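Retro notes
What went well: the complex prediction finally ran end to end.
Inputs used:
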Amino acid sequence: MHNRLRLLRAERGWSQAELAGRLDVSRQAVNAIETGKHDPSLSLAFRIARLFDLTVEQVFNDPPRN
Amino acid sequence: MDAQEIPSPPDAERPAGEVRSRRRRQIFVAMFAFSLLVGIAVGVGMGMAEDGGLKLTRETGWGLAVAAALLIAGFSVWFYRWVDEVEVQDNLWANTVGLHAGLAAGVPWAFLAHLGHAPDLDLSVLFLIIVGSAALYYTAVKLWRLF
C-alpha cells in the first residue's frame, strides 16, 4: 500500500522517533510503514490521518490490482 | 468522522519518542532477564527431580503445570497488548512458522518411526526445529525491515 507518511512527516520537520511518540508506536513501526514493509491496522491508519488532519485516503492509497 | 476531532495530547504531557523507545528497551531487557531466571529455575528443578533429590506429589505436579499454563497465557496477553503492531505481527508470524515447522517435521517423523522406517521421535531435536525455525524467521524479517 502506498502512503505519504514520509512526506507529511518531513513537512512538519519531525523525526521518525518523534512521529512514533505522537502515535504511540515504535520508531521501527513508523519506518516499516514509510518504506511500505508494513500495512498499519485500521486503527493506526486513522490515528495517523487524524494527527495530520487528513482523511485516511489522503494518506494511504491502495493501487488497483490487475 | 471529523478528521479534527481527536487532537494529539499536548507535547508537554507526552514523553518524547526516544523516551518511549528507551522504556520499551528497558522492559524488554527486564523481560529477558526474568525469562532467563525462570528458565534456570525450571532447568535446575527438572535436574533435581530426575536425580531424585526433589520429590513431587501428583498435586504439586498438577499445580506447577497449571501455574505454567497461566503464566504463559498471562504473559502472552500482556506482551501482545504492550508491543506495537509491527512487533506483534513479527512475533505471531515467527510463532506460526515454528508451529508449522514442528508439525511438518514431527508428524511425518512420528509416523515413520511408528512404521519402523525412522528412529524414535527425539523431542529435543523437534524442539530445536521449532525454536530454530521461529528464530530464523524472526531474524530474517528484522533484517528485511532494517535494509
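What we learned: Chain A has a mean pLDDT of 91.
What to try next: split runs per interface for comparison.
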